[in-house]
Specification:
Layout: H1 5-11, H2 20-25, E1 57-62, E2 68-73, E3 77-82, E4 93-94, E5 100-105, E6 111-116, E7 121-125, E8 143-148, E9 155-159, E10 164-167, H3 169-172
Antiparallel strand pairs: 1-2, 2-3, 3-4, 5-6, 6-7, 8-9, 9-10
């Protein structure tokens, strides 16, 4: 590389010893100062901040394959994100009339359930973002938690009304 040597002289001592930069250039600058105590062996894990909701994010969940993230928000939407890049996949899923408090992927990753302060559970196609059927009702107060059964045939929900509701397979398939 044709760069100013002082960049290497000033940056290499602070580069983790297992980094590609350090391994490639430290032999060329062997008389550099070194960190003796407290240095990191490698770069810290990348933290990705995803932005896109217009209000508080209340719930997040990974798809079973770990490739997507679903998030629910006070802005009454559910968003899908690429877990590797942080890019939004399609537009926000809209249908709730109040804040979304909980989101869950089905075990096969094909559906998303969401619970809301509007007292309903909505079911979504995780690929197209389309709402599947009408919102599920039964709670008399806000839905704060939703979960799929391990076989994906039932959805359970917990509410501020102090009840747990669940739907049978014929209601959600």
């Amino acid at each position: 590389m044709k760069s100013t040597p002082h960049l290497y002289v000033s940056a290499l001592p602070f580069s983790p010893v297992q980094s590609i930069i350090y391994k490639q250039f430290s032999p060329k600058y062997s008389n550099l100062a070194q960190i003796v105590d407290g240095g990191e062996p490698g770069w810290p894990n990348l933290q990705l901040t995803i932005r896109g909701h217009d209000y508080f994010v209340t719930s997040v969940t990974f798809s079973p394959d770990g490739k997507r993230i679903a998030s629910g928000s006070f802005d009454k939407t559910i968003c899908l994100w690429d877990a590797e890049t942080g890019l939004q996949l399609g537009g926000p899923l809209t249908g709730h009339t109040d804040e979304v408090w909980s989101v869950a992927f089905s075990p096969d990753g094909k559906r998303i359930a969401s619970g809301s302060l509007d007292k309903t559970i909505c079911l979504w196609d995780a690929e197209t973002g389309l709402q599947l059927g009408s919102p599920l009702t039964g709670h008399t107060d806000s839905v704060w938690s939703v979960a799929f059964s391990s076989d994906g045939k039932r959805i359970a929900s917990g509410s501020r009304d102090k009840t747990i509701c669940y739907t049978k397979s014929e209601n959600i398939m």
